[in-house]
Design brief:
mainly alpha; Arc Repressor Mutant, subunit A; 3 domains; two-stranded antiparallel ribbon; 2 strands
Length: 322
Amino acid sequence: MRLESKDKSILFSSTDIPDIFFIEYLSSASGDFIKIYLCLVFLAKYDKDIKITDLSKKLNLPFNVIQAGLAFWEENGVITKKPTGYILNNLQEIELHKSYTPNLTLTPEAIKNNSKNEYRAKAIESINNQYFQGIMSPSWYSDIDLWFKKYGFDEQVMVALFDYCFSKSALHKNYVQTVADSWSKNNIKTYNDLENYSQKRDNINMIKKAISKKLGRYTALTEFEEEYIEKWILDYNYNLDVINIALKKTTSKANPTFDYFDKLLTDWHDRNLKTPSEIEAFLAEFKNKNKNIKELEKKTNYNNYTQRKYDNLNALYANKKG
């Protein structure tokens, strides 16, 4: 007995999208890339043959965006390129394979049933409920378990990691991985480590804003300028009081640069000057010595190595007002 559908009209047909797409891939893809994927799913259902140029016209997207979108989905394993076109992979099979890869993943059930991982299971479940509305993809469980092993984070730090990424509206794996790498490089393992790191970052940001304000900068600091400031704070262990002394040395300079500030602060650091009082004492002593040398030069035409020794320092510390 042959059964035929009474209604073959496209008006009454539908295209299924697996739930795993919304859980696993939606947040990491741009709107244009999602548009491309949905169109591919629709066309694949009817075994349609379409050129990239035609797809560009159909979706009203630039040709390079179509190419970038196809590359994105291929990189994420959603589609596979063939000589004749693309195959749309089964997303449910992909996730099933991830969940049952031996020695690499830990399924939600395994975590919950392992008494040694009681606190970890609670942390992961908290992440699931707070940031995924209780429907976190199985692959997230695997990744979280790997991050625990790789970075040695305690449970509070792992929850804080997801809270930070969620607050940045960037709860996708690449961003979470990047932040986790950064925290690990700063020796964060416990929540106390994280609090100390956060206080340090807050202090750096405060100093950056103060410097911008004192210099009358209304645009953002460049990446290189921020690197200078972080060097002064983290490597030289200087606070804003010390940096202020360097800023004041530019009162007679038309266009002071961060390179100039860095030379001043590096000179002080190399001289093992640590506090504002030590630096002020050095500047006063230098000014007095320089004055004495100039007076001696006037009286005796003094012009030997000692004078030349101060030439570069004169250029560095020259300031009509300081």
